[in-house]
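In this supplementary section we document a worked example of the pipeline. Step one takes a protein sequence of length 132 as its only input; no multiple sequence alignment statistics are reported here. Step two produces a three-dimensional model, which step three serialises into structure tokens for compact storage. The input and output of this example are shown verbatim.
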Amino acid sequence: MKVAFDTNVIVRLLAADDPVQLAAARRTLAEATEIVLPIVALAEAVWVMRRAYRVPLSTLTPIIERFVADERVRCDRPLVAAGIAIMHRGGDFADAVIEADGRRLGAETLVTFDEQAARLLAEAGASVIRPA
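The serialised model returned by step three reads:
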């Protein structure tokens, strides 16, 4: 079975906070021949794990890396790699995905009011400006 995971399924697998839903998600994961991870669902799941569950980046980052390393997983690997790279620097997965996707779509510079994102992305080599 080829499946795409919604945010709530990814969160159940990561948070393991609902035994019934966790068991169902694990069964689906085990039975899947291909697992599609839409970038929006993965970004939302990372956000939920960081904000709602307060999972530290040092814990969450390797979990995400292992999850996407599964040979059955199909995802936008360059965007996921950008998100993981910024997580290793202490930044937000979605910020890096937005910058990388914008660049891929032809943008030269990311415009953001987020001071931390601007600094971390610029340190990683991205062109970023904060409007004044």
